[in-house]
Amino acid sequence: MSRFSQFVGFTTAHLSRRHSLRDVVANLSAQSSKLYHLGVKAVTRSSFARVNEEQPYTLYEALFAKLYDRCERAAPRHGFKFKNKLYSLDSSLIDLSLKIFPWAHLSKGKAAMKLHVALDHDGYLPAFSVVTHCRTSDLEGGRSMAFPKGSIVVFDKGYSDYAWLKQLEDSGVFFVTRARANILAKTLSARQEVRGNVISDERIELASPRPRAMGMKPLRLVGYVCPDTGREYQFLTNIEHLSAQTIADIYKSRWQIELFFKWIKQNLKLKGILGTSKNAVLTQIWAAMCVCLLLAWLKFSSRIDLSMQQINRLLQLNLFLKRDLMSLLKNGSPPPDTPSLQYRLSL
């Protein structure tokens, strides 16, 4: 059994939401006459399980990086006027069964793996991804990602560690985050031009012993009132070239990564793992990330107005049908049935 056959099996499982390994194999066997044209041989349950257990998941991790590089070239830009790359950073738990996966123990009666993602707002693509044990901190997952110089990273208070903020600034990376409630700061200056829902815009110096010992540079503290809820927020950033309203809008756009986690859990198979080992779990998660990028590439290259969820549903219903893909995505009618060459020869 080849790794490509394994990937076709996982893609079938993710797009058609197969329930089990036996279900995936039965579905592929029902399409045995069409597997040859995919370059896939018939697979058995034992072979599929063995490959999932033994063959390293790092192949799909590398494939994910290649697919992102291709999708990034075709992705539309984010909706802000600035030219900096914009990333949202967060993590989410992939729930597992404690009885089947005792090595992934989280708490009483629960097991999980943690998926860390930095979402590129150009096309809302997962740019950086790390899969770790469920007890790995969000900050540790964020530290493992190398953001390009000049980019903007937005994250919540769970990542607000002064040492990491200084590391980002020393690397030439901008950040936007929520300020902690107990922040100790000395106001150096305040900007007078405050408008709209922005209530304050100050240049501050962190007064706590730790940031002072590290030699952190002055930062910017923006106060903002949500027009819908009336709740006040304070955003901590090292960005000086953008307006306070833009800083608030950047943090508001962080909600896109929450929508990404919701989408991938609802539309791909991340409930019901097709194996019991850690390698099998990681393989299925990385295969899901690759399928997500394949759907994004279809959307960008075809330049259609369909959402990724709509594309996913179309493929789910027409997965092994012999149809023109662009005609399917653009809601074109299928070509009329014509006799094959074999029938013509028989006549």
Concise summary:
This protein has helices at residues 3-16, 21-30, 32-35, 45-54, 58-74, 138-143, 162-170, 209-214, 244-252, 255-267, 278-302, 308-317, 325-329, 341-346, and strands at 86-96, 105-107, 110-120, 125-133, 152-155, 174-178, 185-190, 198-206, 219-225, 232-237.
Q: Helicity range of the residues?
A: 40-55%
Give the SSE string: HHHHHEEEEHEHEEEHEEHHHHHH
The backbone outline, from C-alpha atoms, is: elongated
Gap between N and C termini, in Å?
39 Å
Alpha-carbon Rg, integer? 24 Å
Number of strands: 10
Helix/strand class: alpha+beta
The biggest beta sheet reads: 10 strands, mixed
Task: Figure out the total of helices.
Answer: 14
Instruction: Give the DSSP E fraction (strand runs of 2 or more residues).
Output: 15-25%
Question: What are the low-pLDDT stretches, counting only 5+ consecutive residues below 50?
Answer: none
Mean pLDDT: 87
